[in-house]
User: What shape does this take?
Amino acid sequence: PFVRRAALPVLILAIAIGGVVMSDRADADADPGIATAVDAGPDLITPIMSARRVPAWLREPTSDNLLSDAIAGVLTGAPTGTCIKVTRGDMLIADNNTTEPIQPGALQRLLTLSALDSLGGSGFRTEVAISADAAIDEDGVLQGDIYLIGGGDPVLSTRPFIDRFGDERAFTNFTELAGQTIIELQTLGVTAIDGRVVGDESKYEDISRDYQEENGTGAAGVEQPIWSTEQVASNAVGPLSALLVNNGFAEWPTSVDPTLNIRVDNPAASAAQLLDSRLEAAGIDVSDNPGSGDAPALLERQTVAIIDSPPLEEILPRSLVDATTAEMLLIEISVRSGSEPSRLLGSLYLVTGGLTAAGLPFDIISTRPFDGSGLSSLNRTTCSMLHAAVESADSAAASALPPIDQTSVSACAPQWVDDLRVLASSDGATTGLAGRFSADNGDEVVFSMLVDDPTRLVADEEPVAEGEEPPEPVGPFESCNHMQAALLDAIGGHPYGPRLETLSPLEAAGR
Assistant: This one.
């Protein structure tokens, strides 16, 4: 691996110090020795031109070398399929195998996010409407159906579903939409509905609920389903739909382990059922069972309630910690590009265009996206690509990075590190990290790592005392391995070298 050695700065430093010494000697030889009665105060121990007057600059070469050595230590004994790229500002610190295509796991979401951000646009809108010619009789009965129309909002959720994550992820509150609907119907004098609640998911017409039926060709030239049966069953991603509430799960435990969730078969009908139950609870009787279907055209319906999602820039960070959001954003890339959302391969092609538009070093040989979340084992990208996604502090990907204490690798991060933002992946055989560290001296360290290792080690759990029950098993999202721990430890140690006070100007000596 490339390891930066700071020989040139050291040489320049030596020349500068030598020049100062020779200058002092020349001044001494030319001094006629004229006496003066002026008291100049304490003698300077450190010359004006001494390198000690720029201690941070003086330490920098040593610090960079020690950081390089720490990164080299991470690579010691690493699997062959390992790439790492680390920079400090504009300085390349470590560079190993950075153009090798490796399965990115969850780090794929950085690329999906970057591609959608390059297209711009606003958030999403969900609407409740009735037919424009629907009549309300003298008893307050609405003669006709009520329509819940999905706008592709990937974060439409109820508060109980969101609260269990314990973070500040963006969401659109379904309860608020239901409340608006109830108030407006009551204002119209509606006491009952002679019809049903219909969920409309036609914005994303004919999309796959999952990608088991979609095939892709891997690096070895073998065609296979983009998602396996096991990957779908993991519930990392819910069933996809333009009308999706709570990621498409009907039930979920207090634990955030998605494998324990219960998927819905028809997301639009499930959303309609949820609104139906809210109407019934408010005393508005609905005669027929809820279902799914198409709402009347825009000019043929009357809007009852509308709720807008948070702005897109607030939704993008959720896509890094929520695979369903990432997949929904992939579909939206097609819609905003004027393509058919049902054509997955077309969506993936548009992602590649978005990556180029985002200024990332995309090429089809080394970066091959097959989904939005990184669930597919067919995805490939490089450390150079991931590093570029978060290299600029102003980029959408860098801005969306979660703080270390909100990630799956918080347990293996150095305890003394504060301003560290990172996205981690421990999916299947792939280990990954990409992030930014703001050191206490103001340096910005940017890093990416991918490890393709089927035999990777997971950090040991706390030992269980004899006679005690082991804790309930949780998903891999709560574990980290020795490679991730080693890289975070190496990054968190910056700046290395002596303390600045030991390199600063010496105190002046009195007479």
